[in-house]
């Protein structure tokens, strides 16, 4: 049987693992600088914990886990015969792989709220799974790097998360633009167009604007039984100016009779103004009125980050979710969070050649194997290097020197060390810098530094 990978998954080589760690270390450092504490949750949750939190489309992308044992024997025969998957799923599966890190986090907060100090700030870096169609930058298994704050309604949390995004991407040297909107503004738009009962359908279609264009969005709205008259009232959405504050002023006029819409404008205006007061360049922040992020749990600010110089989807996103823990029986715990898409960040950095040399793990010294007493002395010296935190290894066989040279070059090892009979006798070490092509002999003391 020819080995193969499951679609939407990848193996990671030594260089890829090292580069991913480089990104994670920068994010982790910034999370902790901003006061977030680490948390990890299980890879799978009860199916009931996940379903109903991501909208209709999100629920379809949850990877369900078959129950153990003779799961088929407990299925209702009529449901089986009619292939009614809606009724079959709860009969054959009660667990599922994590779809994101936010809902498991909300479940954790609901279970532990009596022990937590609020506002509670946590970061989480773990893999998630989605039964999505694999494509460039989109995988079925991928890492999310989240930072969330729960227990505070203050809009200063939004301002702080904007700062966290900008500092982290600045440290990674990725030029980005943060697109912002507010779900209350979207609710106001639904009121203005007379489609309040179709809010979810409206936001799901609008969220696809980047992928399917205006015509595609209009077509989907019509398919979802939203009238042409309502669509015409929303025509201005597709003709926004580049001035965020001017667009917000236009909305204030249209939302004269929408309390929730005006509230959304007020909140977004505060976040934008405070960010500008802190020195954020307006070019880094965009009020994107068509940004919807198709997750049902967002209630206020929503964010999406895009790399300026690479054609790829969002490399980060998030928003406010003031009611998420209510579904777990715990009320009045507002929250807001953002996520960094590790895999997409990696692809952007690779395309822009932003990884520094130190982001790759390389062995510093390879000791040539001469056999006999020389091997024992080489191992002793290797132990001393390792105690100093310097990576070193011995070629395992007493092979021809050409073969040992080839091994070092293919593995990207910087230096090949010769500790032969002459060196042992004189208390010296000979080594060749394989990158510069220079060879030198130094005393043992000088070599160990």
Architecture overview:
With 449 residues, this protein is of the alpha+beta class. The chain folds into three domains: 12-175 and 309-359, Bira Bifunctional Protein, Domain 2 (BirA Bifunctional Protein, domain 2); 187-287, no CATH class; 362-448, 3-Layer(aba) Sandwich (Rossmann fold). It is 42% helix and 18% strand. The chain is built from 18 helices and 16 strands. The chain has helices at residues 14-33, 47-50, 55-60, 77-81, 85-92, 102-112, 156-171, 183-193, 199-206, 209-223, 228-233, 244-254, 259-277, 342-351, 372-387, 401-411, 421-426, 444-448; strands spanning 37-38, 44-46, 64-65, 95-97, 120-129, 141-150, 176-182, 285-287, 301-307, 316-320, 335-341, 365-367, 392-394, 415-418, 428-433, 438-443. The protein has an eight-stranded mixed sheet. A five-stranded mixed sheet has the order 13-12-14-15-16. A hairpin with an 8-residue loop joins strand 9 (301-307) and strand 10. Helix 1 packs antiparallel against helix 7 (156-171), helix 9 (199-206) packs antiparallel against helix 10 and helix 12 (244-254) packs antiparallel against helix 13. The two termini are 52 Å apart.
